[in-house]
């Protein structure tokens, strides 16, 4: 239950991304600076936390072992995740991006065969290839059904171009984030805590963010003071607090694809939190009854997803061991 609670808390702070990115876009800020400034601003906060915990040297030693892999999977998990998300904010409202982002629930489930699970048997520890938890996948589709109801009346008001440029980048991000996160968990094998792993991935992805910033400098100029301040808030709330909470929750269920899928399903709460944030901060219109019906389905689907994953995990693992 603790990983689920941490996942929901992470979803609350992740929602700041959608609300503040929408705010920056409305005020004329470029998606380039919204993306790059977040990770540049994250460095001081994370560095202080890791230094105070006296865990910097183990992190640097770990990164020296496989620098290329660190840069690759950090680029996938952070670069291909957040840059497309900010790009989409230039073409779609925050509510639609938050809704489309829930595709990560299914994306994470479909990635299961790419990884191995740790199973404890009488003969010792056994590594088996992950399987797609189809019952959990059905619950994920229930969540997405609720999202469809939420976005239905709004999406028909957008042009085809805005739908494509606002949806496709988010779909790319929905696969990149869980893929990069899980690959880094496999690499670290529990040797690093969540703070170390987030700092390491941020440092390893800095070349990409610096190149993106250089591109922004020559194409759109320097960011405004308002955009810099809001990017700082995103870095603190979403980049540091939310990411660390989410990584802590996924670390607790590392090696178990069903429980991992349940934790990732908690991110569906971002839709509700982002909607509330836009109502308060951006004064968007109050959702219709159809949208509230969709929100209810999303929450119900998340609860059912977690319940099924928790109840079936023991039988699933026993079946996997018998097959081997």
From TrEMBL:
Could you list this entry's UniProt keywords, alphabetically sorted. Answer: Membrane, Transmembrane, Transmembrane helix
Q: Which InterPro entries match?
A: EmrE
* Highest taxon above the source species: Bacteria
Q: Does the keyword Acyltransferase apply?
A: no
Transmembrane ranges, per UniProt, are: 31-52, 72-91, 97-120, 132-152, 158-177, 198-218, 230-248, 260-284, 290-308
The entry's protein name is: Multidrug resistance efflux transporter family protein
Source species, please? Answer: Niallia oryzisoli
């Amino acid at each position: 239950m603790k990983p689920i609670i941490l996942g929901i808390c992470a979803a609350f702070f992740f929602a700041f991304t959608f609300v503040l990115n929408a705010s920056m876009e409305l005020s004329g800020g470029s998606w380039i600076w919204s993306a790059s400034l977040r990770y540049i601003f994250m460095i001081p906060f994370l560095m202080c936390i890791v230094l105070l915990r006296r865990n910097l040297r183990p992190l640097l030693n770990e990164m020296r072992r496989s620098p290329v892999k660190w840069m690759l999977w950090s680029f996938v998990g952070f670069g291909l995740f957040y840059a497309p998300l900010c790009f989409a904010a230039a073409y779609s409202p925050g509510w639609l991006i938050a809704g489309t982002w829930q595709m990560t629930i299914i994306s994470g489930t479909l990635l299961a065969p790419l990884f191995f699970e740790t199973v404890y048997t009488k003969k010792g520890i056994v590594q088996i290839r992950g399987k797609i938890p189809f019952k959990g996948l059905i619950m994920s589709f229930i969540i997405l059904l609720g999202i469809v109801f939420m976005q239905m009346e709004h999406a028909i008001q957008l042009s085809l171009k805005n739908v494509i440029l606002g949806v496709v980048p988010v779909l790319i991000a929905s696969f990149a984030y869980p893929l990069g996160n899980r690959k880094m968990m496999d690499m670290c094998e529990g040797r690093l805590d969540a703070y170390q792993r987030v700092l390491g991935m941020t440092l390893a992805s800095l070349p990409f963010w610096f190149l993106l910033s250089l591109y922004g400098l020559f194409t759109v100029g320097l960011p405004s003071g308002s955009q810099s301040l809001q990017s700082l808030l995103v870095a603190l709330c979403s980049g540091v607090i939310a990411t660390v909470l989410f990584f802590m929750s996924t670390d607790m269920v590392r090696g178990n694809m069903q429980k991992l899928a349940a934790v990732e399903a908690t991110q569906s709460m971002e839709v509700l939190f982002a909607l509330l944030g836009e109502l308060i901060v951006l004064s968007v219109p109050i959702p219709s009854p159809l949208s509230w019906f969709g929100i209810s389905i999303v929450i119900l689907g998340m609860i059912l997803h977690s319940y099924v994953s928790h109840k079936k995990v023991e039988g699933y693992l026993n079946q996997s061991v018998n097959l081997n």
